[in-house]
Amino acid sequence: MKNLKSAVYPALQRARYAGFISLFEKAKSAPMQPDAVLMFATSKGRLGGNLLAIKNYIEKNNLPFKITAITSENRPDDKALAALMAQSKFILVDDYEPLVYVLKLREGQQLIQVWHAMGAFKRFGYGRQSAEKGSLTHKNYTRAICSSPEVAPIYAEAFGISQDKIVPLGSPRTDLFFDEAYVSSAKERLFEKEPRLKGKKICLFAPTFRGDNVNDAAYPQQFFDAGAFADALGKDWAVIIKMHPFVKTPVSIPAAVEDRVFDFGDEREINDILFITDVLVTDYSSVIFENAIIGNAAVLYAPDLADYNNGRGFYYDYSAYSCGEVVSSFDALAAAVKQATADNERMLEFKKRFVSLCDGKSCKRFVDEILKKS
User: 95-153 pLDDT, tens per residue?
Assistant: First the structure.
C-alpha cells in the first residue's frame, strides 16, 4: 500500500495544481527576463530572513536585478502569478512552497532554495523517516544554499537533489550580525527597554515548543522554575525568557525575582537578544547556530531528550550540538550556566562544522556565485 501511495503521489500533487500548471505553460510564450528575480514566500505575511537580506544587499549596491517579492499578503491572482513565475529567470524560496514543485521550469530558469534555517539539527525534508519519498516536493530545485560544506550532503538528502546542486555560501541573514551599527542599535534599544539588565551577566532561556504545531504547542511547566533558577544563579545575573512564538502560556515569574527575570516574549527577533546575552540556554532549537556565530556560550537543557529523539531525531549525536554542557536535570542547570564559556575547543569545532561560511559575506557570495554565474 505504501509503494502504491508513493507511485500516485506525484500525480495527486499535479492534479491539485492543474489549473496553475496550465497557466504557467501558457505564460512561457512570453520571453524570460534575464534580470528578473521573483522572491516567493507565502508561508509568511512579510519578506524576511535570507530573502530580505539578499533583497537589501542587491538594492543597497544598485545591482542590475529587478526584484519582485510575493508573500501571503500581496499574492496576485493565479494568471498574474503564473506570468511572473514563467518570465522570471530566478525564483527564490525560503521554505516549503508546494506550488513551485509541480512546475516544469524553462531552459535556463533557476529555482533556488535559500532555506530559512541553517546548520543541520533536527531532521527535515527527506531526512525524516516519515517523509513521502515519492513526492515531487523540493526535487526541482536547481540550486540550494547551506551554511557550511560539511552539511551539504545533508541538504542534498533533505531536498532529494544531487549534492552538486548544493552551494555552501553561508546564511545571508547572518550578515547583519557583522553590521556594527545595527548590533549597537539593537543593544541600546534593549537596555533602554529594560535598564535593570545593565551591569548584569545575562542568561537567555529560549527553549522550543513541544507538540506538533501551533494548535497544541506548549512548554512543560515542570521543566523550569524561574524563581529557583534566578536564585541559584545569584544576584549578579539577570534572566531573559523568550519562549517560542507558538507557546502562548508565559512562564510564571515570582514577584521576588521580578527585578532580574524578564519575559521578552514580545520581541520579534531573538537574534537581537543574543547580542546582549552571555549564556544561551535552549534545548532543540536551531538558535544554537546563530548563538555560535555571535560568540556566546551555550548550555543545552534537555530533560526529555529520550522522548524527543525517538520522535523526529537529529543528524548528529545530540551532545555535538552544544558548545558547552548538556544538562538533563533542572537542579544542575544553574551551575552549568555559571561555568559555561564561549572560548573553548568545542565552540571552534561547532562553528567549523555548521556555520563556517557565516562571516558577513554570504549575500555577496550568493550574488556572485548564483545570480551572476547562472
Answer: 999 999 999 999 999 999 999 999 999 899 999 888 898 999 999 999 999 999 999 99
Are 91 and 109 within 8 A, CB to CB?
yes
DSSP letters for 105-162: PPTT-EEEE--SS-S--B--GGGSTTS-TT--TTTT-SEEEESSGGGHHHHHHHHTS-
- Which range has highest mean pLDDT (154-163, 244-253, 317-326)? 154-163
Cell of 18: 492543474
Strand locations in the chain (E): 33-41, 66-71, 88-93, 110-113, 143-146, 166-168, 201-205, 237-241, 261-263, 279-282, 297-301, 326-327
How many CA within 13 A on the CB side of residue 149? 1
- Exposure b/e, 197-208, CB count within 10 A at least 16 = b: beebbbbbbbbb
Phi, psi (degrees; rounded to nearest 5) at 19: -60, -40
Q: Report the pLDDT value the prediction gives residue 176, as an integer from 0 to 100.
A: 96
Between the alpha carbon of residue 329 and those of residues 121, 229, 304, the distances in Å are 22, 12, 10
Distance of CA 186 to the CA centre of its chain: 20
Cα R_g (the chain), whole angstroms: 22
**pTM higher than 0.85 for the full model?**
yes
Distance (Å, whole) CA 119 – CA 170: 9
Four-residue CA torsion sign, 127, 294, 196, 325: positive
Q: In this structure, what C-alpha cell is assigned to residue 367? A: 550574488
Q: Please check the confidence at residue 14 and state whether its pLDDT lies above 80.
A: yes
Backbone angles phi, psi at 16, to 5 degrees: -60, -35
